[in-house]
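Q: For a teaching session next week I want to show students how multiple molecules come together into a single three-dimensional assembly. I've collected the sequence lines for a complex. Could you give me the predicted structure tokens for the whole thing so I can convert them for display?
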Amino acid sequence: MKSEIKWTDKMHFSAKIRHHEHGMDAKAEFGGEDSAPSPKELLLSSIAGCTAMDVVSLMKKMRVDFKTFRVSAEADTTESHPRVFKVVHLKFYVDGENPDLEKIKKSVEMSLTKYCGVSAMVSKVSPLDYEILINNQVAATGKAKFEI
Amino acid sequence: MKSEIKWTDKMHFSAKIRHHEHGMDAKAEFGGEDSAPSPKELLLSSIAGCTAMDVVSLMKKMRVDFKTFRVSAEADTTESHPRVFKVVHLKFYVDGENPDLEKIKKSVEMSLTKYCGVSAMVSKVSPLDYEILINNQVAATGKAKFEI
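A: Of course. Below is the structure for the complete assembly, covering every listed component.
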């Protein structure tokens, strides 16, 4: 797979991924104009998206009864260069009438120990932890652990 | 920093990063509809964008004479889970009347040994190599090396 990005002006880049396009920019403090997410912010989307796709697939396979599903990824960066995420905090929000916590826990664990390639790639430098919230109540917590 | 993604349907997620929004989707073979880049493709944009912003800043500081600047990031993934990038291949394309190769090499080296946090985060699992192309001719090659 491939992304090709083209510099347009200041810190603005337009990215092309097959037939898809998106922008990247820096905030004013880094010489940009904040017209689009920063590369590091997009990495958080990439981590959240990778594990969320695993979890939604697994929840469907296990017939978990859920109505809405959200994932947030949040991180602070180190002060010294290279500025990397200290810890990536993931929150899995599952809402529904009666979602099965054990199956949800199993889905998240499978993603964050075996399947999620993006999380695995960053995990040696930036550890990941997670909370599972069922109808906005914290129901479980854990950490990513990959054997790579 | 934070990204929050919301499941909309099948494998489609809408991401919100502050006031910015973007989509993610999977290809049909993974149960999606390919309406947006995949999380792993976005990681390639993130890597390319992170190093490209360093390099464009450094080239400007060193007064490199360039007209256009593009960066591509390309990778194959492993067959076994977690599917990670085997190697990330970066190509830096600098076009101009008479761009100074030594200064461009210095800029790329500084990014990929010291500054680029996104590359640093993946580098322990997925090594990165690069080519620098001046007016479409390969002028230098190298590898990322971070001390973290």
